[in-house]
Automatic annotation (TrEMBL), chain A:
Gene3D superfamilies: 2.40.50.100, P-loop containing nucleotide triphosphate hydrolases. One of its GO terms (molecular function) is molybdate ion transmembrane transporter activity. One of its GO terms (cellular component) is membrane. It comes from the Bacteria. Pfam families: ABC_tran, TOBE. This is Molybdate ABC transporter, ATPase subunit. Keywords: ATP-binding, Cell inner membrane, Cell membrane, Membrane, Molybdenum, Nucleotide-binding, Translocase, Transport. It comes from Candidatus Contendobacter odensis Run_B_J11. Residues 1-232 form the ABC transporter domain. Residues 292-356 form the Mop domain. PROSITE patterns: ABC_TRANSPORTER_1 (PS00211), ABC_TRANSPORTER_2 (PS50893), MOP (PS51866). SMART domains: AAA.
From TrEMBL, chain B:
Pfam families: BPD_transp_1 (PF00528). One of its GO terms (molecular function) is molybdate ion transmembrane transporter activity. GO terms for cellular component: plasma membrane. InterPro entries: MetI-like, MetI-like_sf, ModB_ABC. Part of the binding-protein-dependent transport system for molybdenum; probably responsible for the translocation of the substrate across the membrane. Residues 15-216 form the ABC transmembrane type-1 domain. The chain crosses the membrane at residues 21-41, 53-74, 94-119, 140-162, 202-219. It comes from the Bacteria. This is Molybdenum transport system permease. Belongs to the binding-protein-dependent transport system permease family. CysTW subfamily. NCBIfam families: modB_ABC, PRK09421.1.
Amino acid sequence: MLDLNLELRQGPFTLQGPLTLDQPVTGLFGPSGCGKSTLLRAIAGLARPQTGHITLNGEVLFDAQRGIHLPPHHRRVGLVFQDSQLFPHLSVEHNLLYGFKRLSPKQRRFTLAQILDLLDISHLLQRRPRHLSGGERQRVALGRTLLASPRLLLLDEPLAALDEGRKQQILPFLRRVRDELRLPMLYVSHAINEILYLTPHLAVMEQGRILGQGPFLEVIRQDHILGLARSLGLENVLQVTVSRHEPDIGCTTVHYDYHELHLPLSALPLGTPTWIALRATDVALARQPVTEITIQNQVPGRILDLRRVADRIVAEVDIGVPILAEITVKAVHDLRLAEGDTVYCLFKARAWHYLGAA
Amino acid sequence: MWSSLQLTPEELSALGLSLKVGLWCTALVAGPGILLGWLLARVQFTGKAIVDGLIHLPLVLPPVVPGYLLLLLLGKQGPLGHWLYDMWGITLVFTWQGAVVASAVMALPLMVRAVRLAVSLVEPRLEDAARTLGAGPLRVWLTITLPLAAPGILTGLVLAFARSLGEFGATVTFVGNVAGETRTLPLAIYTYTQIPGADGPALRLVIISILLALAALWLSELGSRRVERLLGK
């Protein structure tokens, strides 16, 4: 599908790295200002790298050595902007048809009716963009790009300008695009829950570099990405399923494998697979189960590894899945912890947070 | 002095000439003004500062200077004027066409400035969006840049027209003050003020000038409101 390796310098900023998209949807994740948008602009042809190449389905879009730089209007790569960029002087209908009407009927992959139905925007056709809400604008922008029949859909933080409620309204539409249109997508966000809602495959960027890519759990466990994961509180991420809610005691119980965990009350439907995360500093270890304590989760496991990192120790404990616990050197000495020991991992229910449905 | 509201033939001729010169000047300035304004707003090229300076010179020079330079360049003996006469039999000196050229030179910087500002206010990412939707550079220009800059272009055209109505120095220097040919309203007013006892006719032309200017402003206001509605503002 998409394969690139490039270097693009813009003033003091350098974007570089290899990236291969071979999944239906790949999330591009990284903190704000790390170069995600610039990468998308390079793929779309709006920015020209100094070196490297970009190929899509075997076609060369860019090759510095051979002097190839296909202009954006010949790439058929769709780009949805964070702030929609609808044409203010055109109605919604003419915005939607802007790319569509320039395609030969053979190139058109979708019909207007199909897109209107998919995104639920039929009632907006005659309106001007300024009369649309933020969520409506993004749906129209998405529809406009889809109707241009791109071979690859680039989404540049399409939800970042929306409030939480609106985000939850738009995300299902993106899932429908994924499932019904089968269009390869690169979804850029600094919100991991949005990405995980659409795909477990992601590439991670930091300061202009693509640090790695692959399935979520594998990627964030890579040593050079762990620092970033740590700064985002993503050292421990589990995929669990919701088993029951107990509103009267403010508790939701989830399970993974045969283990149960007690979490803060959530509104997720029963049986929903969901991602939950926990900071390594929020994990305590004990030799024995502790009674008379408010901590709700005590899960037995085996210490796989004790690694000294600066002034602290990162313990990796197998509780069915590997869990990282950050503890002091003193604690390890006091308990005489060693690799292979059995310990209990203590998690406060409220220390877990939900990353969103998987 | 108000004996008659009927315009005399001379007054009518001055008014008609002003309108004719103004409209032709506006038409002449439109194309180059839009292109140059866009060029200065969006394209980086070597010598941009020089082009920019040349266009704006008439705005800061005393109008007689461009008028005199036009005379040197386009007069019968001037290099370009000579050629125009030999090749096409065109004479600009002492003709209303020459007055159009003089007005256009003076009006161009105003047009260019208005267009440049309008184009620079068009969000470049709207053009980017159009490009990713499959529109080539010319189509982006025609369907996005130009329509969105339309209010500024309209303002530029009105300014050019108004500048032409008021043009005096460059015109009188380049094409003289020939009744019925180059004597536009300002030149006619000036002529009357030089004749003892002709305050009445001068004042009548002053009032006509004011009414004309008000009408132009009102029309442009109407036009820009219409354009803004079309742009969805």
